[in-house]
Amino acid sequence: MKRLLRCRVTIFLLLGWITLSVVGYMGKDTIYKDYRQDVWKMPYFVMVFEGAKDGVFLWGERRGPLLPDSGQEALTGTKEQEETPENQSETENSSERQPETISQSESDSKESEETEQIPEEKEFVEVDESYFDDAVFIGDSRTVGLREYGGLEHADFFATSGLNVYVMWKNKYCEVDGVNITLEEALKAKQYKKVYFQIGINEMGRGTIDDFIEEYKQAVERFKELQPDAIIYVQGIMRVAKEKSDTDVIFNNEGICQRNERIEELADNRTVFYIDVNEVVCDEEGNLKEELTFDNLHLYGSKYNIWVDFLKTKGILQ
Predict the structure, then answer these.
(1) Using CA atoms, how far apart are residues 59 and 31, in angstroms rounded to an integer?
(2) What residue segments make up the domains of the chain, in order of their start?
(3) Are 32 and 60 in contact (CB under 8 A)?
(4) Neighbour-count burial of 286, counting CB atoms closer than 10 A to its CB (0-12 exposed, 13-18 middle, 19+ buried)
(5) 68 CB-contact burial (10 Å; exposed 0-12 / middle 13-18 / buried 19+)
(6) HSE-up of 166 (CA within 13 Å, CB side)?
(7) 3-state class (DSSP) for residue 160
(8) pTM above 0.85, yes or no
(9) Kind and range of the H or E element at 313?
(10) DSSP state, 60?
(11) Cα separation of 197 and 236, whole Å?
(12) Which of 130, 223, 225, 251 is buried most deeply by CB count within 10 Å?
């Protein structure tokens, strides 16, 4: 019985060897053409085993890699999978998305750099009178009064009665070395660390608030260009006394407050700062105190020290 069983195993192995050799022979010029075909080194049935190991069968397509010494890439099944329309679409989409991702990254980097370059907001500090030694004051008759009675002898003043934003760059009212020149010429001739700008009472009743603030804004931008290292103070328009405000349809505190609100919007608290002397010269109702003015518009000469003391609380350290 055991001999018969052994005989059957031998017969089975012999038939299997013959079958595999026939399969290898039939495929030697087709699916097994890329395998070595020296029948002494690699008999036909061995090629079948090698092919099966790589997923190559006589009845099917290639599904695995070729032998390493074939020098070729992945088999046809792998290539077809890579070249399907779905994969091509995914590859194209991936290729299209990649520049967008890089662009977004670069955009975030630029935004980060811009954010880092923006200076922090600054706060006011107390200063002494020497703080104004490298300052210039630009304005109308009220600034003229500050020049005459404020005691700021080392500061420069480019101011004249009746000055307004519509003519401030045209008229020659800036005295430099005994010669009157335009404001632009004066600001080009010398660099300052602080620019104080107080104007607006003479523009009331002329044009609209939008017209006024547009000219005012352009003046501030021009200051930045001509004085790039200076802190710019935009000062609120000083209000008028109650009697004047209640009886004058043009020069009244309602109109002044509307303009001051727009002026304040120009401040960024980094290079441009809004300050309002009305905080110290007005009463509880918001009117210029009667005891400080001789004409309901201007301060007494002896009262300009109030303005100066106020300015000393609004210093900015550079």
Answers:
(1) 10
(2) 2-82, 129-312
(3) no
(4) middle
(5) exposed
(6) 11
(7) coil
(8) no
(9) none
(10) S
(11) 9
(12) 223
Torsion of CA 93, 95, 100, 103, to 10 degrees: 180
Measure the CA–CA gap between 301 and 272, rounded to whole angstroms.
Answer: 29
**Distance between CA atoms of residues 102 and 105, nearest Å:** 5
pLDDT for residue 238: 98
> Which residues of the chain fall below pLDDT 70?
1-10, 12, 17, 20, 22-25, 27-42, 44-117
Q: Which of 162, 142, 158 is nearest to 301 (CA)?
A: 142
Sheet holding 272-275, edge to edge: 156-159, 135-139, 194-198, 231-235, 272-275
Q: Of 31, 63, 64, whose CA–CA distance to 47 is shortest?
A: 31
How far apart, in whole angstroms, are the C-alpha atoms of residue 302 and residue 205?
Answer: 30
